[in-house]
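Journal club prep — side note

Before the paper discussion, L.F. wants everyone to see what a predicted structure for a comparable chain looks like in token form. Sequence:
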Amino acid sequence: MSWIQQHANSQQSRLAATAVLSGAAVAGAILGYQAIRREKAVHKLKASIPDINDSHYAEKLTEYGSAAAPQLSKEDERSAALARRAQEGDYDDDLILEQLARNRVFLTDEGLAKLRSSFIIVVGCGGVGSHAAASLARSGVSKIRLIDFDQVTLSSLNRHALATLADVGTPKVHCIRKRLEQIAPWVNFDCRNELFGGSAADDLLGPWQGQKPTYVLDCIDNITSKVELLHYCHTNSIAVISAMGAGCKSDPTRVVVGDISLSTDDPLSRSTRRRLKALKVNTGIPVVFSTEKPGPGKASLLPLAEEEFKKGDVGELSVLPDFRTRILPVLGTMPAVFGYTIANHVICDISGYPNDYNAGGKGRDKMYDGILAAMQGLHEKLARTEAGQDFVGLRLPISKDDVGFLVDDIWRGKSIVSGLHNRLQLILWEKPARGFGPDSSWEKEGQKFIPIALKDLVCLTKEEAIRHEREVLREGKRPEDIYDEKTVQKVKERMKEAEFYENYR
């Protein structure tokens, strides 16, 4: 106690206490001044916001932070009013048939009637989806559901079919509806300003006005949503067609329609196929894709800037979880080509007009057959050399579909050594410890079967395969002895991919 009194009475202690109190007073004054300034700034900002009235319209933002349905101009209001009457039947059917006259003589009355009675869902209303929706409405489809959570941005205008500067900041679904009602007022639109996901599929892809969807158009560029949509449609037997990547493409003559198992030369196609394969969906979904290959001077996916990685989780840069963070280079014309190709397929399919194209498969089936035949011949030759006898009926556990999967999905349609795309072969990466002859356990059952796994095979050109056969399979050299470390490491990585997806064969 005496120590406390002694220091309390000292001049040094009194000075220290005074300094502390003074500092606290100054800090309080500064904080108080800042609080007053902040309050005045907030008050001024609030005062600058006009009252909500006829001149200043406002709506709540959606859960995705975008604007809700935009306020209509006087002209748009008149168009919307006409559309409401037309959709209720107050519109001369002869006028509709006159507007659809060219489609009518092309598709016939019966075909046009099927198209007019259809209900189509467009999921994704950006560059591809907007052009597809516009073509469907102009061609006579009377019921269209539009699904997209996003809003029009300035960068959308280089490829969106219907958006104008006045639409920037408004939902894409309402932008499309507003414009198309001015073109085809009798078309009924069901706008869903929502993000498609598997949990919402029953509602978003469900019936409308008692009618189940005739067709679903997948125009999504997010891989997770795309796979969920395609898997749902495939599982529930809903007709669907999907657009693969239009980014980095520039050759409209290379855009084709084919089964998803045939789509190549596109990272979005590859990722979609792999994920669907894991869900046991390998075929049966038509897709629009480009066979154009990348090359010197062509656009490519831009790498994310290093400074963005240093800031932390790059996923935080995306609009929503699992959405891409890179900006894809897109030539404005190519999404339109994809969109019109999708719409063309759907219009012909619904109306019964013959679609006899199979451009997506031309040449590739023949290539797969050739690779499979070469692989069969090589193993028969190796087994005969090793055992000194012919093996009649020797079989490989590899199908043409397996060849297509390995060549296109695992080895990206090119040699792992040189990167060349021509004269490809599949060959064992290492000489098997058990030899090249048939499995003895299967021979007891009367089957001459060589146990080869997909992960054992590597893609080379024909010339590279000849050398590999001589040095690795016949002379017994290790691949590490003849290939550089980078190639060997790449092979190991791809083999792990093949091993994973082999579980879903």
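L.F.'s comment for the group: The first strand starts at residue 119 and ends at 123. Keep this in mind when we get to the figures.
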